[in-house]
Amino acid sequence: MSTTRCYYEVLSVTRDASGDEVKRAYRRLAMKFHPDRNPGDTEAEARFKEAAEAYEILGDAERRRMYDRYGREGLRQRPGHAMNPDDIFSMFSDIFEGMGGSRGGRRRPTRGYDLEYQLDITLEEAFGGVEQAITFTRLDVCADCNGDGAAPGSSPETCSTCGGNGQVAQSGLGGMFRMVTACPACRGKGKVVSDPCRGCDGRGRCSVERKLSVKIPAGIHSGQAVRLSGEGEPPPPEGDPSGTGQRGDLHVLVRVEQHEKFERDGDDLMVLVPVNFTQLAMGAEIEVPALDTPEPHELHVPAGTQNGELFRIPHCGMPSLRSGRQGDLVAVLHLVVPRHLNDIQRTLLKQYAETEDVAVDAGSPGFWTRIKEAVRGH
Q1: Cα 16 from chain centroid?
Q2: Do 57 and 63 contact (CB within 8 A), yes or no?
Q3: pLDDT reading at 369 higher than 50
Q4: CB 21: neighbour CB atoms within 10 A?
């Protein structure tokens, strides 16, 4: 299969995505559409191979540059470029880490699939850290057949196509090269099942619900993940029917919800603090809400402070995930103009307006001129 869609579109990443982002995107698609998880689903198999093809190009820095510059035409003209997405396990052993793949005729150690779980937490929980109970679904070794896929009381038989090797050799281009691939009859297992297990339909793996408690460290950022070793899936039955090999990991991807008051910038916290005209003009002591204490912080606003000015309260922001040192709390003062005035307020403001003497320099540059000069760095 060869996809005609843009490779970035296939993996749902932007053109400036990092290598790690490309890899994570491919992992998610590969786990979702892998044939072992979608038996008999031809559409899932096609999506799986399409993602494999896209990752082979975008996961390689040199091929990605060629693709970005010249498109598919540049890839076709590049000497030595040949792709066979059907041989996916050997092509992407860096991601699946040899799950059923082979290289040079030697079977690599098997490892189970990694899984990903998205956990939503509040900014308060990200500030102090939190322990959350999660429930997810994973494939596990079938308890009825112990993973061999055969009904209780029966056993798998040696595959007659490959003689139990799990691999077959194919020649191409008039015998110029020889390719070793997984046996199509037994799918690399070396065994075939004539009487399949009812509990797993002969697949050797069942979908089970797993409950865990995960500790989220203080200071975690949205998009970061907590890895739970060994909480992924067991190795595929092709190389390890009983699932005694290394399990994959569970990656808990954390998403910190937007807060109604605070905006996070690295380890700093920004908060919009409403103030009135008299507080800015005459100076005042105001309260600034915070996350590090239940009581607000006191902030002195000097007389003549302008709308939009920033005040830093040191070490009252988010804790650093690495050092634990807190960032700053940044108060952004926001002038609130009253929508309605009573008679006394209106009278007083009129009296004040009569005392105002705001000089306008006709020779000074206009508002938009000053903005443009600031943008241009003048």
Answers
A1: 15
A2: yes
A3: yes
A4: 15
